[in-house]
């Protein structure tokens, strides 16, 4: 029958003084009777890359309970402002991190998985709130409104220096809406209290850690070595961010994102590292190649495991792939051991430390620029394009597979170079070039990945036999998969022969020439 | 939604004390309860610290111009609301007489509250009037408090006869003795020989107790400030009995209909 009529915040600096300010503001007409204070803990969940937050969603767990609450608390980055609140009771208290699809089926899981994709839910923040209940009486000592004080403090990831603003919510008793309006106006007129325009959830998440800073804006006149060092710093930071999650095996995307960062570093070193001080390419190219090597086996197995549900649809007997699934899992456990050893090694930590130190030295060094960033961009984008376009135009159905694979690597180099120099490029031409390149890369990727998977499947079938698999069905099922991948490979190859000129023809060449703004 | 009325022709017998305390106990038992103070004296309204005012007064309320829901106030007790008295209720008979089927008006006014409340308690003024006829037609159970005196008991018989002659829907009458002083011989004798048929008067008696007098000082139901007192125990026992009569299984539900012969 009653509904909250006003939410206020206390604008003074000292939370304990808020109660006195409240009593003073209402004195003469109303009496505040303060009740007990209870504490509650709220855990905020999100993916490591803030997908829920970017979608304007907040997912919370109260205490160590089984109830999850999903609320829309902000406008999503795509502008969606639909309000809503969903709650779901789980059969047991969850422990974090957790993959969203491990939550019990329900409205919260459905809404979260629509946003989270392959990412796990981790603890983004934890707060402790002191909740004090109070009632407000009129001059007849009649209760006319209920009030709740909230004093919230961030306790995780790190205790905040100060509390969030003290918040009040005033709920009129039925029949006393007008009186509660009067109360809110009296509180507002004194200056100590104001309408609450904020949202505690978004304030908590902001205090817990803002969204990562965008990379420094690239200026055409920036010395080329500084621009390249800044780009590499960004990729290095991305690599570091994903180490802990990779080691803890929270979800597969940590390793994927770590490897993407490594590939970007390697491409930029290869295609533009010559502007950096002598010796940097030689040392770091080899070291990051090592990082790529120790991470590849696990990632390849991750891809198989992630695709396994779909792969089961490709064979005549789904259950025949169960031994294969178990084999993949054992292989992955074994592959992770050198990965974890490597990422925990002195060699790796020294690599990151020295790399960041050397890049920082380039950025702060005060020396005359041999070349501007715009000139470098023009030169290196053109070079990367030609390195790809020439062999792409010579592509036939008889081009050996290794050459096709090499073409794909050149395509990745072009793509990473384009990403680095994107701020200097014409928006429309950039989008068009990238779109064509992506289409071509997708076809090359299907061709190469299919071939790699066929080889891998043959190898794993032999391993299963060596490990004692005696039944024909599991081996035949793996063979069926290999057959499907081979067919995929042929289809991708045929697509390449017919259409490659569309992706990298004269039109693209013209766009590349005009890409960098003068 | 059930309707319980606290009513007697005679004043000062404990109608308001019964209405207030039983409404409180019903809410405590989990029933969403509304107490309507129909007495222009506004005693129940005073006890709950509510100002005796209905916007538009009795006339607009009876006509339906003012929504009955708009006049309701929450009390300080969870689950218990109050439709307060207003001094204009002194003219409610005049307002009622202008309505179609004037003796059924209160029942019609209460109908929209069906989804919001489990129980409505009516605290009626001591009179035999159009208001009280409305109350008798609206109630499922009429609780008749009596002081154990000859004149007070006589009113129970008068009321029983009056209800028996009502057309249409008739409530169940259930008497009980209030302000009982066990030290007095007359009180003991009358309590031992209650009026009406067997079972028409409750075996539960409400004793004379200073706690009940303190209700007006404390401005609260007696169970709210003296939970272990004799008066609270007695009202609690009475409530159990009333709840059994009101919320009984089908076939024994109060509020029988007399068909015209």
Structure overview:
The complex is a heterodimer of chains A (518) and B (261). Chain A is α+β, with helices and mostly antiparallel strands and 518 residues long. Chain A is built from 16 helices and nine strands. The radius of gyration of chain B is 17 Å and the shape is globular. Chain B starts with a strand and ends with a strand. Mean pLDDT of chain B is 90; it is low at 251-261. Chains A and B meet through loops of A and strand 3 of B.
Kindly summarize this structure in a few lines.
The complex is a heterodimer of chains A (518) and B (261). Chain A has 518 residues and is of the alpha+beta class.
Key terms:
heterodimer; A: 518 residues; alpha+beta; 9-stranded antiparallel sheet; 16 helices; B: 261 residues; alpha/beta; 8-stranded mixed sheet; 10 strands; disordered C terminus
Radius of gyration of chain B: 17 Å
Elements of chain A, N to C (H/E): EHEHEEEHEEEHEHHHHHHHHHHHH
The count of DSSP E runs of length 2 or more, i.e. the number of strands of chain A, is 9
Q: What number is the mean pLDDT of chain B?
A: 90
C-alpha end-to-end distance of chain A:
67 Å
Rg calculated over all Cα atoms of chain A: 30 Å
Tell me, rounded to a whole number, the average pLDDT of chain A: 87
> Which class do the helix and strand fractions of chain B yield?
alpha/beta
Topology:
The complex is a heterodimer of chains A (518) and B (261).
Chain A: E1 4-10, H1 15-26, E2 31-46, H2 51-54, E3 57-62, E4 67-72, E5 85-89, H3 107-116, E6 122-137, E7 143-156, E8 167-172, H4 177-189, E9 193-195, H5 200-208, H6 224-241, H7 243-248, H8 252-272, H9 280-312, H10 322-343, H11 346-364, H12 373-393, H13 401-420, H14 427-466, H15 472-504, H16 506-513
Antiparallel strand pairs in A: 1-8, 1-9, 2-3, 2-6, 3-4, 4-5, 6-7, 7-8
Helix pairs in contact in A: 6-8, 6-11, 6-12, 8-9, 8-13, 9-10, 9-11, 12-13, 13-14, 14-15
Chain B: E1 2-6, H1 15-28, E2 33-37, H2 43-47, H3 57-63, E3 73-74, E4 80-83, H4 92-97, H5 105-110, E5 119-123, H6 130-138, E6 141-146, H7 150-164, E7 168-169, E8 172-180, H8 185-192, E9 201-207, H9 210-218, H10 222-225, H11 230-246, E10 257-258
Parallel strand pairs in B: 1-5, 1-6, 2-4, 2-5, 6-8, 8-9
Antiparallel strand pairs in B: 3-4, 7-10
């Amino acid at each position: 029958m009653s509904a909250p009529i006003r939410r206020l915040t206390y604008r003074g600096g000292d939370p304990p003084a808020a109660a006195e300010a409240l009593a003073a503001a209402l004195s003469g007409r109303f009496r505040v009777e303060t009740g007990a204070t209870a504490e509650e803990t709220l855990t905020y969940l999100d993916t490591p890359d803030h997908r829920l937050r970017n979608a304007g969603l907040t997912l919370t767990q109260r205490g160590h309970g089984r109830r999850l609450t999903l609320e829309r608390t902000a406008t999503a980055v795509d502008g969606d402002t639909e309000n809503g609140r969903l709650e779901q009771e789980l059969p047991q208290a969850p422990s974090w991190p957790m993959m969203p699809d491990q939550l019990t089926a329900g409205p919260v899981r459905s809404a979260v998985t629509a946003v989270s994709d392959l990412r796990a839910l981790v603890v983004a923040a934890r707060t402790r709130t002191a909740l004090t209940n109070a009632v407000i009486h009129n001059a007849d000592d009649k209760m006319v409104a209920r009030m709740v004080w909230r004093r919230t403090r961030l306790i995780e990831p790190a205790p905040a220096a100060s509390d969030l603003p003290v918040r009040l919510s005033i709920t009129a008793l039925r029949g006393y809406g007008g009186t509660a309006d009067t109360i809110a106006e009296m509180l507002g007129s004194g200056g100590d209290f104001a309408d609450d325009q904020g949202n505690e959830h978004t304030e908590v998440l902001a205090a817990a850690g803002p969204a990562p800073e965008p990379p420094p804006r690239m200026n055409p006149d920036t010395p080329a070595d500084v621009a390249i060092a800044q780009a590499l710093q960004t990729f290095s930071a991305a690599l570091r961010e994903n180490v802990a999650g990779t080691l803890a095996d929270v979800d597969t995307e940590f390793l994927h994102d770590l490897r993407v960062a490594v590939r970007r570093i390697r491409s930029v070193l290869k295609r533009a590292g010559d502007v950096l001080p002598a010796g940097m390419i030689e040392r770091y190219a080899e070291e990051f190649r090592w990082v790529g090597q120790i991470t590849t086996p696990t990632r390849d197995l991750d891809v198989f495991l992630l695709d396994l549900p779909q792969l089961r649809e490709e064979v005549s007997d789904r259950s025949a792939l169960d031994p294969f699934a178990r084999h993949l899992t054992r292989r992955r456990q074994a592959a992770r051991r050198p990965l974890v050893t490597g990422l925990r090694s002195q060699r790796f930590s020294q690599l990151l430390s020295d790399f960041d130190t050397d890049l920082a030295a380039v950025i702060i060094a005060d020396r005359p620029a041999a070349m501007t960033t715009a000139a470098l961009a023009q030169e290196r984008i053109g070079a990367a394009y030609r390195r790809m376009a020439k062999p792409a135009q010579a592509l036939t159905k008889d081009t050996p597979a290794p050459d096709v694979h090499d073409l794909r690597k050149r395509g990745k180099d072009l793509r990473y170079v384009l990403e680095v120099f994107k701020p200097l490029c014409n928006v429309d031409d950039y989008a068009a070039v990238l779109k064509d390149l992506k289409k071509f890369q997708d076809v090359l990727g299907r061709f190469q990945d299919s071939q790699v998977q066929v080889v891998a499947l043959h190898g794993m079938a032999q391993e299963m036999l060596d490990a004692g698999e005696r039944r024909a069905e599991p081996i035949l099922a793996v063979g069926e998969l290999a057959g499907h991948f081979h067919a995929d490979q042929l289809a991708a190859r045929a697509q390449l022969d017919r259409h490659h000129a569309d992706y990298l023809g004269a039109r693209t060449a013209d766009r590349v020439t005009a890409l960098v703004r003068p | 939604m059930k309707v319980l009325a606290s009513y007697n022709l005679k004043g000062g017998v404990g109608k308001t004390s019964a209405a207030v305390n039983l409404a409180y106990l019903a809410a405590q038992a989990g029933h969403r309860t509304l107490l309507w103070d129909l007495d222009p004296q506004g005693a129940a309204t005073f006890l709950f610290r509510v100002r005796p005012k209905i916007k538009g007064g009795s006339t607009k309320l009876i006509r339906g111009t003012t929504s009955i829901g708009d006049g309701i106030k929450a009390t300080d007790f969870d689950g218990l609301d109050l439709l307060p008295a207003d001094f204009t209720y002194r003219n409610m008979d005049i307002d009622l007489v202008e309505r179609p089927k004037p003796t059924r008006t209160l029942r019609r006014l209460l109908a929209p509250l069906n989804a919001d409340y489990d129980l409505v308690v009516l605290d009626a003024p001591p009179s035999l009037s159009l208001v009280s006829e409305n109350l008798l037609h609206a109630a499922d159970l009429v609780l008749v408090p009596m002081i154990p005196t000859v004149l007070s008991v006589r009113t129970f018989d008068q009321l029983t006869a009056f209800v028996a002659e009502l057309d249409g829907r008739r409530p169940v009458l259930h008497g009980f003795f209030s302000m009982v002083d066990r030290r007095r011989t007359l009180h003991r004798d009358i309590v031992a020989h209650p009026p009406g048929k067997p079972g028409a008067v409750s075996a539960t008696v409400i004793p004379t107790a200073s706690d009940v007098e303190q209700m007006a000082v404390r401005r609260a139901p007696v169970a709210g400030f003296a939970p272990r007192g004799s008066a609270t125990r007695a009202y609690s026992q009475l409530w159990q009995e009333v709840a059994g009569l009101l919320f009984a299984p089908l076939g024994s539900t109060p509020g029988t209909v007399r068909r015209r012969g």
